[in-house]
Amino acid sequence: MAPRTLFEKIWDDHVVYEEDGKRTLLYIDLHLIHEVTSPQAFEGLRLAGRRVRRPERTFATVDHNVPTTDRSLPILDPIARQQIETLRRNCEEFGIQLFDIHDSRQGIVHVIGPELGLTQPGMTIVCGDSHTSTHGAFGALAFGIGTSEVEHVLATQTLPQFKPRTLEIRVEGQLPEGVSAKDLILYLIGQIGVQGGIGYCIEYTGEAIRQLSMEGRMTVCNMSIEAGARAGLIAPDDKTFDYLRDRPFAPKGEAFERAVAKWQTLSSDPGARYDKSLVFDASRIEPQVTWGTNPAQVVPVSGRVPDPSQFPDPVERAAAEKALAYMGLEPGTPIEEIRIDRVFIGSCTNGRIEDLRAAAAVVRGYKVAPWVQAMVVPGSGTVKRQAEQEGLDRIFLEAGFEWREPGCSMCLAMNPDRLEPGQRCASSTNRNFEGRQGRGGRTHLVSPAMAAAAAIAGHFVDIRKWRFK
Amino acid sequence: MEPFVRHTGIVALLDRANVDTDQIIPKQFLKRIERTGFGKFLFYDWRFLEDGSPNPDFELNRPEFEGATILLTRRNFGCGSSREHAPWALLDYGFRVIIAPSFADIFFNNCFKNGMLPIVLSEEVVEGLFQQARKHLPYRLTVDLERCVIEDEYGLRILFEVDPFRRECLLKGLDDIGLTLLHEDKILAYEKAHGIV
User: A445: helix, coil or strand?
Assistant: First the structure.
C-alpha cells in the first residue's frame, strides 16, 4: 500500500460508502452536543419521526449559556433556561447521556471530551461547534458541523463529506522560555492568515509540537479553525496514551493495551505526501498579542500596533483600518503601553488545568491592578476541583481575581459575563471578533500567563521579563 | 427544502472581508429553539444603533439595497462559529444567493443545507461586480443554477462552478438525511464489520 498520511488513515478507516465525484459517507464514532446548536436538530428528528441511531455514541453537556455564578440559584435569563431545559428533555426522550449543570463532570464540551476519555486516537468526532478541532490533539479527525448536520448524525451516525486536502505545518526547534502553545498557534495564524487553512485538514508535526503537553496540543488544534482549517491533527504518542490511561471512558486493562497497539499505527508513513507543507522555526516565536478584530491581526508583545497604510493588499488594508477604529488604537503604539480594563482566563482554548497553573504562577504574591476586573472560569468541574486541590483558587482570589463556575462564559458572552462597550480585555480565548465578548468590547487574544501578567500590571507586559514570586 | 433553480433579485454590497458569523447573527440571538425568525436580528450590531434605531451608515440600510436577495461581499465570508443560525438569519432576511471570493467551510456547507446558494468567484471578478453594481444602483442580477451562469441587464455574463452533487440537491431540494438513509444497509454493514453492533 502507498504511504499514507495520518489523515488518510483515519479517513479510510471510516468510509461507509463512496461513489466517484460524490461525497464520501463517513462513519462518526463520537457525537458531542450542547444546548445552543442542538434544539432544532431534535425538532427535525421529531417532525420526521426519526430516532437517534446510536445514542450510546452521543454525549451532551451544557456550556454556552450557563451562568458561572452560584449554581444553586435559578437561571435568570428565561430563554437560556428554556434552551437548557430543552436539551434535558431531548436527552431524556432520545436516551442520551447528559452531563447536566449540577453534574460534577459538567464543563465546556471540548474540555470534558478529552478529560473523560471519550476522545480517543483514530476516532471521527463531530460537534455543532467550530472548536471541535480541539480533539485533533489526540490524533482524532474532529470537526465542527452545523445544526442540519447534527440532525444528520443523530439520525444516521454518518456524515457525507468532501475529502479535505492535507496541509502539514512542521514546527522545528524549541519554543523559547515563556512562549506557550497559545503564542505558537497565534503566530502560525498570523503567518498563514485567517483563510490560509480553508479546505484543508492541518497536521502539525515537528519537534516543537512533539514537546507540547496534551493541553498545549489541544490549544494548537483548537485554533486551527481560526485559520479556516476544517480540522487540526497531531499524531498520538506516549504522552497521548499516558493522558488517556485510567480516564473514565477509556478502555481498561488489557483492552487499553490493545488499543494502544492500534493507536501506535496512527502516524503519517515515511514518504506520505501532503497537498501542501509549510515549515516554521519555533525558536523565533515571541509571546503574541492580537491588535485587531481577527486572530491573524497579531504581533509579538515587543512590537507595535501596525500602520494599515503599510499593508500592500487593499482588502487587508481596509480591514486593518476598520479594526483599529473599532479597537480604539493608534498605529505605532507599543503593545506594552496598551492599558486594559478586564482580564478573562478560561475557554476551550485555555481553560484547562495547565493553563490555570501557568496563570497562577504569574499571579502568586501579586494584586490585580486597581482599575482591572479579572476573572478565571475553569473549563470544567473536573478542572475546577483539581485547581482547588492545588490551591490555585486561593492564589487567584487573594490577588483579586474572581473564581467562577465552569462554562464558556465571556469567551462568547452568551451568559451574563460580558464586556461593556469600549472596555478592553486581555483574554485567553480564541476570537477577537467585533462584539464577541460584548457589544463594543475590545478583545486582545493572549496566552493565560500573558493575561495574568496584564491583570497585575494593568497593561500588556512581556512575560519573559516577569519576576515570579 | 425549497429547490433553487433560477433567481433574480437586487444585489446588496457588503464591502468587507472576513465577515464572521458573530457579526451575521450575534450570540444574544442564538437562544431561540426554532429555525425561523432570525432575519430581524441579521447583522444586528452593525444594522442597529445602541437605541435600536437603524444605523444609517450600515450598507444594508441604504435605500438602493432595500429588498435585496443577493449579497455580494469579500473573501472568507462566514468565518468563525459554526452556528447555522447565520444562514438561517440571511435566508429569513430574504437572501438566496451570496457571492464572494471565498467562504469559510462550515458556513459554505450550511448554506446548501438551507437552499441558499453560495457562489465562489475570483477576487478580480468580484471586484468587477462591485464596480458594475456601483454604476447601476439599484443593481439586479439573475442567477441560473441550471446553466451555472450569472447575468445582469447590461449584457454582463459570468459562468460559475458548483459541485455537481450539491447542485443537483439544490435544484431538486433533496433532503440529505433521506439520501443517506438510502444506504442504511451499508451503514449497518459498517457497524457489524467494526464491532459497533
Answer: strand
CA pair distance A194, A228, nearest whole angstrom: 6
Q: Between chains, do B82 and A162 touch, taking CB under 8 Å as contact?
A: no
- Mind telling me how many Å the CA of A14 is from chain B's nearest CA? 9
3-state helix, strand, coil in chain A (%, to 5): 40, 20, 45
- Chain segment B153-163, per-residue pLDDT in tens: 999 999 999 99
3-state SS assignment for residue A345: strand
- Closest by Cα among B11, B157, B116 to B71: B11
What confidence score (pLDDT) does residue A74 get?
84
Nearest to A144 among B17, B82, B114 (CB): B82
Quick one: which of B140, B137, B107 has its CA closest to B9? B140
The tens digit of pLDDT for each residue in A149-200 reads 999 999 999 999 999 999 999 999 999 999 999 999 999 999 999 999 999 9
The bridge status of strand B140-144 relative to strand B6-14 is antiparallel
pLDDT tens-digit series, residues A86-111: 999 999 999 999 999 999 999 999 99
Sort out which chain B residues have CB atoms less than 8 A from A80's CB and list them: 31
Rama region for A399: left / alpha / beta (φ>0; ψ in -120 to 50; rest): alpha
CA distance B20 to chain A (A): 7
Closest CA of chain B from A468, distance in Å: 36
Residue A435 to residue B187, Cβ atoms within 8 A:
no
Find chain A residues with C-beta within 8 A of B22's C-beta.
412, 431, 433-436
- Report CB contact under 8 Å: B177, A152: yes
Name the residue of chain A whose CA is nearest to B110's CA.
A146
Q: Are B24 and A433 in contact (CB under 8 A)?
A: no
Q: Is there a contact between A146 and B187 if contact means CB atoms under 8 Å apart?
A: no
Distance from CA of B139 to the nearest CA of A (A): 23
Cβ neighbours around A457 below 10 Å, total: 18
Contacts of B26 in chain A (CB under 8 A): 435, 439
Q: First and final CA of chain A: distance in angstroms?
A: 56
CB B117, CB B145: distance < 8 Å: yes
For chain B, which residues score pLDDT lower than 70? none
* A415 in Cβ contact with A404 (< 8 Å): no
Residues of A in contact with B164 (CB under 8 A): 21
Assess whether the previous peptide bond of B138 is cis (omega < 30° from 0): yes
Residue type, B10: I
Helix (H) or strand (E) run with residue A443 in it: strand A442-445
Q: How far is CA A4 from the centre of its chain?
A: 27
Q: Which chain A residues contact residue B16 at CB under 8 A?
A: 318-319, 322
Separation of CA A255 from chain center? 30
Query: Which of B16, B28, B176 lies closest to A152 in CB terms?
Result: B176
Q: Which pLDDT does position A144 carry in this prediction?
A: 98
Which residues of chain A fall below pLDDT 70? none
Taking phi first (over 0 means left), then psi (-120 to 50 degrees means alpha), and beta for anything else, what does residue B6 get?
A: beta
C-alpha cell at A301: 508583545
- Quick one: which of A252, A463, A453 has its CA closest to A364? A453
